[in-house]
Each structure stands twice: as C-alpha cells, then as structure tokens.
C-alpha cells in the first residue's frame, strides 16, 4: 500500500507539473498576443491619425532621398572596408608572433572599449589639429565618418573571426601541415573557410549595427536621416511624419541586408548547401 501511495503521489506531482507548464505557456502566449495587439493598435493610430501623408510625399524628395542615398553610400564603403580590415585584425590576433597578436588585441580592446561617438570626435576634431597649416582634405567629415565606422567595426569583425578561427580543432592545422602545406596555405585553404562560416552570423549582425550607427554621423554635420528628421520637425512642428519616414528608410536597408546575410549563411553551411564537401 505504501508503494502504491508513493506511486500515486509521484503521478499526481507529474500531472501538476504538466498543468503548470501548460498554464505558463498559455499565459506567455496570451501576454505576447496582448503586447502585439497593443503595438499594432499604436502603429495603426500613428499611421492613420498622426501621419500627414501630404507632407510625407512633399518631404520624400529631395531631403530624405538625398539623406537616404548618402547613408547607403557611407554604409557600403564602410562595410566593405571594415570586413577587409577585420579579417586582417582577426588574423593578426591569432598570429604566433606575440608582438603582432598584442597589437591586434590592443586595437580591439580600444575600439570595443570606447564609444563610437568618442572615436568619431577624435578623428573629426583631433586629426586636423595635427596639421600645422590648413587641413588638406575638403569635406573631411565624410572621410571621418567612413574612417570611424571602419575602424570601430573592424574591431568587432576581427574579434568574431578570431572566435571562428579558435573554434576549429587544432588537429586540422596539424593534419594540413603534415600534408606538406605551409602555415599560410593551411590558414587559407583549411582554417579560414571554416572560421568564416562559423563567424558569419556575428559579422553579419555587426554590419546591421553599422547601418544603425550612421545615426551618430549627425554630430559630424553630415546630413543623414536623423538630420533630415530634425530639419523637417523644426520647420513643420510635425514629429510623427518624419519619424515614420526615418523608420521606413532604416528598415529598407536593414531588412534586405539581413536577408543577404541569411542567404550567405545558408550557402556557407554544408548541411544546407552541398552537403558532403
């Protein structure tokens, strides 16, 4: 009888735990649904009541169009340069030469440990003061923007690639060296392709962050999207119309970029693309 009672108690406890789990799941679904409904109602209210569509059409060109194209240009240049520089930094970080590795580590620590806004100010204000005469570059704010974004995000790309390289078992390097490959050949042919695949998600996420970081370029007097928003808001005293336009503009960049990154991840994954290579 004692044994049957014990079994009954265990069974009852298991049933109660199942019921509690189901209740928590239902509560979570209900809470999420209510939150989504509230957000949807708020967005609907903004789009149907607060947005002035006549003003929206009026400000799309030229103010927002030029700001949007300017942001895309800066993002494209900075993204390509940051990935190239990040690969160099990542390789330097795992270098067998202690000095090279230490320099790369210091670079990563500095640019990850200080705010991007501070770095932009150092480049934009500090660098021209190193010249005794007039600074040779016109419109240096654009150069400062690209340099700042590139240097900052190269540190994150480099650290992501370092993690990808260190995730590869040491035996693969040893096996490739035993086949007669040099260290550089082993890195290029064996280690880097796998490391790139392992770190692609982190690198892609950083590139999306780079797009959003362009909002800081307003401090360099670059007429980007937030600058256009402030100008329109101060001229019309309408906040929500330019806010909606800014949000749409950023999403027009980040959503396609996210899809490109996911496509690259799928193509780089042998389980979903090619299988047995």
From TrEMBL:
The answer to whether UniProt assigns keyword Transit peptide to this entry is no
Q: Any stretches that span the bilayer, and where are they?
A: 27-48, 68-92, 113-131, 239-257
Q: What are the recorded Gene Ontology BP terms?
A: amino acid transport
Q: Does the keyword Kinase apply?
A: no
Task: Fetch the PROSITE patterns from UniProt.
Answer: ABC_TM1
What topology does the record note for this protein and the membrane? Multi-pass membrane protein
What Gene Ontology terms describe where this protein resides (cellular component)?
Answer: ATP-binding cassette (ABC) transporter complex
What is any Pfam family matched here? BPD_transp_1
Give the InterPro entries listed for this entry.
Answer: AA_ABC_transptr_permease_3TM (IPR010065), ArtM/GltK/GlnP/TcyL/YhdX-like (IPR043429), MetI-like (IPR000515), MetI-like_sf (IPR035906)
Localization (cell): Cell membrane
Select a single GO molecular function from the record's annotations and give it.
Answer: transmembrane transporter activity
Q: Which UniProt keywords apply?
A: Amino-acid transport, Cell membrane, Membrane, Transmembrane, Transmembrane helix, Transport
What sequence ranges are listed for the domain ABC transmembrane type-1?
68-261
Out of the domains of life, which is the source? Archaea
Family per record: Belongs to the binding-protein-dependent transport system permease family. HisMQ subfamily.
What NCBIfam families has UniProt attached to this entry? HEQRo_perm_3TM
Name the UniProt record assigns to this protein: ABC transporter permease subunit
